[in-house]
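Worked Example 4.2. Consider the chain below.
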Amino acid sequence: MAIPSFGKFKAFLWPIHRHEYKKFIPMFFTFFLISFIYSLLRAAKDAIIVTAPSSGAETIPFIKVWVLLPMALLVAYLFTRISNKHTTERVFYMMVSFFLLFFTLFLFVLYPYRDLLHPVAFAEKLQQHLPIGLHGLVALIRNWTFTLFYVISELWGTTILSVLFWGFANEVTSIPQAKRFYALFSVGANIATIISGETIIKLSSIKFNAKLPFGQSSWDQSLFFTLLSVIGLGLVLMVLFRFLNKKVIEKETSSKEILFNATAKIKMSMRKNFSYLMKSKYLLYIALIVVCYNITINLTEVIWKNQLKQLYPDAANFNAYMGHVFILTGILSTATALFLTGNFLRRFSWTLNALIAPAVILGSGLFFFLSLLLKNSAFLTPVASLFSMTPLALIVFLGSLQNCLARSSKFTLFDATKEIAFIPLDRESKIKGKAAIDGVASRMGKSGGSVIYQALLINFSTIAAASSYIAAIFFAVVVIWIFSVRLLGRQFNLLTSSKEPLPTEPEAQPVK
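Applying the procedure from the previous section yields the following structure tokens:
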């Protein structure tokens, strides 16, 4: 059956066929909810860690290496094990339930009794015997419940968003569909970021109410309502995913090899996943791109949050500022996804689209690091005064703008091109490669940035003293990223132009 082509306006803004609504709309809102929850958690985890007693942004690199990376490996291992025994639909419910149970435990036990659970005296004695550069490691131990919350919140983005949702989407969409669907999924995620930013600002402005049974400050009660929202929306997410599977996907195909048939699933282990990854240049290039992105974003975010804490040392104010950053990120990302991403993906080569993210991060990073390195110079003060800002406020603003542009490019063209790169692969490569890349390579990238920070902190004691070295490493990694994209682009072109046909849609015919 011929599918009618779109008119110019619809092709530009809404390239979805009417018969695809039953699949697209539930997938759109599934991605929306996952992204909304992740935005709430991102702001809360940063505010908790950076403003915790005797803590700061320098704690984040130590968390990512000594706690987050081992936990990511453990979660990836558990994911591969349960994926071998259960359907993908059931795996989704099991993983989401794990996260919701932890947030419930944190909300009602770990956070209210943090003063009893945190080993403050031990941490103070430990700090006396360790160099100043290891202050972040001590803070990690001192506030261990906050550390655990940071790690689980971060893993939501990796496990639920990257591995589960995108793995599901890659299985049930063809390349032509992906070029139309994925840009609009990004729009949904960006709208979720905007709404979550407004939500974060409203919750952070809550005044303390002594009549409420939870919390001893306005920040405590703000966190309480934030996590209640996360738990409630997580339950809605599982209901929506159930509807998507039972009412749409299972009716769309009669194949017994559908993703949800446990007998058709490929058995895999962590060791075999990495062995498979190392044998494929194509997958290695994807992994290298993911690692480079995460190193660059980690290098800039930590030093930016270090400056942000100096400007907003209070947790509620810090969290509210992050809400404003999310709103700007969402607006930029929505505009990009709605007006540029889909059209760029359909009109230009994969390589050109994939090069946009590193170019944006390189340019915005240049202005941020220049302002940071000139912080104590006579040049920055008059420049800041032109915008009625202090030098610190200008640095924070440029860091915020860099973060918004980096995240916007990530949520749109970076994610879309990365996911499209998986589609031409056979099903075994998709499952094994994606589990290793999204489940572990992204963590290794962030941990790589954190290892760099730890080495610099041990040698220079503070982030400010090491800022010039951080900038140099940042620019070197972006250059490696650009070369990796070009190499992967050549492989992608060879794969998509091979004689073996890729999944396609029926040929479009003009509407008569």
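The chain is about 80% helix and 0% strand. Strands lie at 3-4, 508-509. Compare this with Example 4.1 before moving on.
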